């Protein structure tokens, strides 16, 4: 859970806080990293071994005995158990405990395959065909927020159709006024009239950091690249010309980044559907992205979006996006019709309600 960086963490945060705002009681159990273990209200941070993330950039925490005690207590307390993604050992543990206690289970599958490299890709494929398939088949309902992930689940042999539930976001992600844009640039000490291209994300291989660096080395001299994020590939952006690098910005201030920028660049692959793109479009910010299925299946026909299968297309897309002159209000209107928080929360409420009607001994 936050402050650990990642889209899954923020999706769950938005869901948990949205449900709590509508009067529901929750316990969120997750690995403590990077915080200390302990409980604070509805947040339960449990001890975990997280070496794989530090060595191979694979976030796969392994829980210890205290975590499983907390898991047992949480499942016994709950009416519904909600797990996230099928390849986490903690998801397998939660499902096993829920079944012992005869609690219904919903799983949100956030992603399909993520490109790591030949060896890890082979391990990942095997994991999906074994553990992933078994867990997806064992739960009562599966939810996704991208059609390409639904197809991935189906290809794994899960016969029950997944529920497609679009994400929803706080109202602060909205088209900014000219005054708000000027104030955002001033707050981050950015030039008022520069063409500002923004990248938001972890600096890891799947985010296309190498393409971003290659792009900026030949970008127009009046384009300033603003990189917000940290990770093992930070050295690739350290010495780029006309580049500002900020390692982290609190999530509650994220909308100000999009207000300040003229363009979002995110050439990532192996995504579920990145929050940064959806949040940016809600503020009316144009975007240049890769041709990953996450983008093609969710952004077809979106105003102000350009798809780039390679570096040359990325350069061309950036040039077109910066010169297109599309009104931010047009982009924001398209996004707000699709990514509404009330609809996101209500869809999960309906899913939970149906599961609560199942007999406990089913």
Written account of the structure:
- This protein is α/β, with parallel strands linked by helices and 362 residues long.
- It folds into 2 domains: 7-168 and 341-356, Glycogen Phosphorylase B (Rossmann fold), CATH 3.40.50; 178-336, Glycogen Phosphorylase B (Rossmann fold), CATH 3.40.50.2000.
- It has helices at residues 7-21, 51-56, 65-77, 89-100, 118-138, 147-155, 178-187, 209-217, 235-238, 254-260, 275-282, 293-298, 311-324, 328-336, 341-356; strands spanning 28-31, 38-40, 43-46, 48-49, 62-63, 81-84, 105-108, 141-144, 163-164, 195-200, 223-228, 243-246, 263-266, 287-289, 305-307.
- Helix 7 (178-187) crosses helix 10 (254-260).
- It starts with 6 loop residues before the first helix and ends in a 6-residue tail after the last helix.
How would a crystallographer describe the biggest sheet? 6 strands, parallel
SSE order, one letter for each helix or strand: HEEEEHEHEHEHEHEHEHEHEHEHEHEHHH
Note the gap between the termini.
32 Å
Any idea of the CATH class of the largest domain? Alpha Beta
Q: CATH homologous superfamily of the largest domain? A: Glycogen Phosphorylase B
Number of strands: 15
CATH architecture label of the largest domain? 3-Layer(aba) Sandwich
Strand content: 15-25%
Average pLDDT rating: 93
Helix content: 40-55%
Number of helices: 15
> What's the number of structural domains?
2
Molecular shape = globular
Low confidence ranges: none
Q: Mind telling me the C-alpha Rg?
A: 21 Å
Record the strand order, biggest sheet. 12-11-10-13-14-15
CATH topology of the largest domain: Rossmann fold
* Helix-and-strand structural type: alpha/beta
